[in-house]
Amino acid sequence: MTSPAVQNEVFKLYYELGITEPGEIDLEAIAFYKDAIVKRKPLSGCEARIIGVDSKAIITVNERSPQERQNFSIGHELGHWFKDRGKIGNLCSKSDMDESCGQRIKHNEKVANSFASELIMPSFMMKTLIQGRPFTSDTVRDIKSQFCGSFIVTLRRLITMDTYMGFFASYNRNGNRNYFNASPSLPGDFFPPRTAPVGSAIHTLLSQNRDLGPTIVDGNIWCRDDLASDTVVHEHAFHYFEDEFLTLVWWQDDEPIWGHMERKGEL
Question: What's the CA gap between 15 and 11, in Å, rounded?
Fold first, then answer.
């Protein structure tokens, strides 16, 4: 979840620049405003690099990467520049910018990732766009089309903003979980299991090759120890890429979760 400090810093920056709509976000222009020049060249062994001397910097991104990756790389390096202005020389690999597999990355890289996400999809714009919308791939794609982030970056941004009480999880064809990202407020008892649970939309998609679209399933399917009796959850499972299938699970009625936390004394 992006810290309030980062949200405030980006809001002030966009206020200074008069940026109020997604289509007005230009990362190269923002970099120039902060005395950083963006160059695109073929890079080997890293996705981007930044070299800063005194008050000026040069950001180089890998021109062989997809445009959405290049955009995130610019935002990531700007995160380093905003935090370590005047004393920086960094090479950033793809793994430094990718937290999808739950791998450990350095704190300063996490901070840069958080800053990049806020620059590309600022909270004050996102909150307006997603208000009242369901947690489905259509919502993700629509939000993505308005900003310059990738599908997964957009999806992760939506869930980490804590607007939806739930998670998204990636499973392979055998039903084994690759990784997941959950709402910061979601207790661990409600995290997705390592194997796609029987009765879930993702299990139906994998075992029967049947796409249910956005649907509602028994809440107990995605909960441990009968924590959600007589409740339902919204789920949207779909094929994402090659051997990767995603499911978006959302408790629109989150009372069972808060009730469980109260019983455990976590509130």
Answer: 6
User: Contact 165/234 with Cβ under 8 angstroms?
Assistant: no
Of 24, 21, 2, the residue nearest 128 (C-alpha): 21
- Report whether 115 contacts 79 (CB < 8 A): yes
Domain residues of the chain, as ranges? 4-124, 164-263
Give long-range contacts, CB 8 A cutoff, 24+ apart: 230-236.
Answer: 231/255, 231/256, 233/166, 234/134, 234/135, 234/166, 235/200, 235/201, 235/202, 236/135, 236/136, 236/137, 236/201
Count how many Cα atoms sit within 13 Å of the Cα of residue 55 in the half-sphere of its side chain: 3
CATH architecture of 4-124: Orthogonal Bundle (1.10)
Contacts 24+ apart (CB under 8 A), 127-131: 127/161, 127/163, 129/22, 130/158, 130/161, 130/163
What's the CATH code, domain 164-263?
3.30.450
User: Whose structure tokens read 């107990």?
Assistant: 220
Residues of the chain with pLDDT under 50: 101-102
Secondary structure (3-state) at 49: strand
CA distance 121 to 145: 11
Task: Give SS3 for 117.
Answer: helix
Tell me whether domains 4-124 and 164-263 share a fold: no
